[in-house]
Write a structure and sequence with these properties.
By secondary structure, the protein is α+β, with helices and mostly antiparallel strands. It has one helix and ten strands. The strands form three sheets. A five-stranded antiparallel beta sheet has the order 1-2-3-4-5, with helices on one face. Strands 8-7-9 form a three-stranded antiparallel beta sheet. It has a two-stranded antiparallel sheet with strand order 6-10.
């Protein structure tokens, strides 16, 4: 084997190793990206499922609505605990709010038919059901909103459609 052949062989081997290293790096970056997205999805999915379930079970009337969106980041849902539509004294309220990159949840048993004021959660009863949530108005849509059948925001719940927008972000 001559010196020229040896140099060509080493050069070809270097190109093959460089290609393999580049391929390995790309695969690892792709895996990390996919793994991060999967972690975020796994974290948000239970929160979305719980909110969807309870919002769909919300009951009320025109004068005492079952779903109240107080702000873009806070929603209240009235649930009829004992299947007694004419008696709202046994209903419970479920509260969700976005605060400090978290979706927080709590329940509050009603003692009368009035809508509980404010956040309405007794101390120590708040549970975090979603973390790493991103909300930056006006660049992102509201976390909670009433929407019409076209998905456009409206002021009330006349179409009985609630939009829940959760945008997850990496740490």
């Amino acid at each position: 084997m001559t010196l020229t052949e040896l140099i060509i062989s080493i050069s070809l081997l270097g190109v093959i190793i460089l290609a393999a290293t580049t391929f390995d790096t790309a695969i690892r970056q792709s895996f990390r990206h996919t793994d991060t997205q999967t972690q975020l999805l796994n974290e948000l999915s239970p929160a979305m499922q719980q909110m969807t379930k309870f919002i769909m079970q919300g009951v009320g009337t025109i004068s005492q609505p079952g779903v109240i969106i107080e702000t873009e980041t806070r929603i209240k849902v009235r649930l009829d605990r004992n299947n007694t539509p004419g008696d709202c004294t046994d209903d419970i309220w479920i509260f969700y709010r976005y605060q400090a990159n978290e979706i927080q949840y709590c329940t509050n048993a009603g003692t009368d038919c009035d809508i509980p004021p404010g956040w309405g959660c007794p101390a120590g009863t708040v549970e975090v059901i979603g973390r790493r949530i991103f909300y930056n108005p006006p660049a992102t849509p509201p976390v909670f909103a009433f929407v019409d059948s076209n998905g456009d925001s409206i002021a009330d719940n006349r179409d009985n459609v609630v939009s829940v927008n959760l945008i997850a972000c990496q740490d």
